[in-house]
């Protein structure tokens, strides 16, 4: 998924069904809440994701409370649509959370 483009509804459904466990669409954004044992682990994960996102030049909307990180992804310069880059970042988030 190296091309950067908005996803069709069918592609988004396929990604949610096959590649993105625990993710959903909330208010038009790719959404997931990650739970960590404590604040330090949540923050460490956010730093790891942040480094990757910065290299992509694609940044999440997220918030952190103690061990919980709530994430919303859209591609802002594509009229806030969910794109291939959102899927790529979501998959990396999942991988780093394990």
Question: Care to give the gist of this entry?
Answer:
The protein is of the alpha+beta class and 98 residues long. The protein has helices spanning 9-18, 39-56, 84-96, and strands at residues 24-26, 29-35, 61-65, 68-73.
Q: Can you list the strand order of the major beta sheet? A: 1-2-4-3
CATH-derived topology: Gyrase A, domain 2
Instruction: Work out the helicity level.
Output: 40-55%
Uncertain segments of ≥5 residues (pLDDT<50)? none
Largest sheet: 4 strands, antiparallel
Mean pLDDT: 95
* Main CATH class: Alpha Beta
Number of helices: 3
Number of strands: 4
Element string (H = helix, E = strand)? HEEHEEH
Span between termini: 22 Å
The oligomeric status of these chains comes to single chain
How is this structure best described in words?
There is one protein chain. This protein is α+β, with helices and mostly antiparallel strands and 98 residues long. It has a single domain, classed as Transcriptional coactivator/pterin dehydratase (Gyrase A, domain 2), CATH 3.30.1360. It is built from three helices and four strands, in the order αββαββα. The protein has a four-stranded antiparallel β-sheet with strand order 1-2-4-3, covered by helices on one side. Helix 2 packs antiparallel against helix 3. The protein starts with 8 loop residues before the first helix and ends with a helix.
